[in-house]
Amino acid sequence: MMPHDWRPPTLTTPRLTLRPFTTADAAPLFEHARNPNVTRFTLWDAHQCIEETLAFVHDYALLRYREGTAEPYAITVTPDPRPIGACGCFWAAQPHQTMELGYWLAEPFWGQGLITEACHAVLAFSFAEYGPERMQARVIEGNHASARVLAKLGFRDEGTLRRSLFRRGKFDNVRMFSLLRDEWAAATAPAGKEARPEKRGR
Ligand SMILES: CC(C)(COP(=O)(O)OP(=O)(O)OC[C@H]1O[C@@H](n2cnc3c(N)ncnc32)[C@H](O)[C@@H]1OP(=O)(O)O)[C@@H](O)C(=O)NCCC(=O)NCCS
């Protein structure tokens, strides 16, 4: 357990500020979390009332911070403080050094590259801070925009876990994607310092 007031550090990108959630975020977040277009391919259902959004902040986000998990991050468009989505990386299997990336964005903000920008920042933070060997992401089959986001971030498609998710009364196929530590390092190496294959026979 971390001190009760531990929070993930704020991250900034050219357009966004990613910061920890507070209970004051419930009202503006509810306006987006209530949208069934947003939840079409998510594990969580569209929020029916603001209390559900408050529970997300209070019973999920703040508990994660209490564990020392830097997730979920509130996504805001600088300098507007209102949250327009969430993203972050958490341990899927710590003994195996595997983390998982998750994200969602409010519908009015789709198609501007914002989630790719946000996820790039949380990936950089999570690889640097926690050093996982593997970052994975799961996408319910049919969520083409999400698969495209992962491709833009350098993730590889590993295949489909057929009917592995029971959701809303039916089984869904789930696509598994991953990005390995050395792939991330090679993709983000400064120009002129690309990772080279190790010399052999030394
Ligand atoms: C998936 C989601 C996060 C994408 O956010 P976004 O900010 O629009 O993403 P970006 O703009 O960075 O990139 C989207 C890409 O998908 C592409 N795309 C969008 N709809 C698509 C579709 N139906 N088929 C194929 N590609 C599609 C876009 O053209 C873009 O690719 P490009 O940059 O090569 O043109 C957003 O739609 C969302 O929050 N959806 C609801 C929640 C969700 O599904 N979360 C993910 C769960 S795994």
Summarize the SSE layout with pairings.
Blueprint: E1 11-12, E2 16-20, H1 26-33, H2 50-66, E3 73-77, E4 83-93, E5 98-105, H3 114-130, E6 134-140, H4 144-152, E7 156-167, E8 170-180, H5 181-188
Parallel strand pairs: 5-6
Antiparallel strand pairs: 1-2, 2-3, 3-4, 4-5, 6-8, 7-8
This protein binds coenzyme A.
EC number: 2.3.1.267
Pfam families: Acetyltransf_3
Protein name: Ribosomal-protein-S5p-alanine acetyltransferase
Describe the structure.
With 202 residues, the chain is α+β, with helices and mostly antiparallel strands. It has one domain (11-188): 3-Layer(aba) Sandwich (Aminopeptidase), CATH 3.40.630.30. 29% of the residues lie in helices and 30% in strands. The protein contains 5 helices and 8 strands, in the order ββααβββαβαββα. Strands 1-2-3-4-5-6-8-7 form an 8-stranded mixed beta sheet, sandwiched between helices. α1 (26-33) packs across α2. The radius of gyration is 18 Å and the shape is globular. Residues 194-202 have low confidence and may be disordered. Coenzyme A binds next to β5, α3 and α4. Coenzyme A is lined by residues 38, 41-42, 103-105, 110-116, 139, 143-146, 148-149. It is an enzyme of class 2 (transferase). Keywords: Acyltransferase, Transferase. One of its GO terms (cellular component) is cytoplasm.
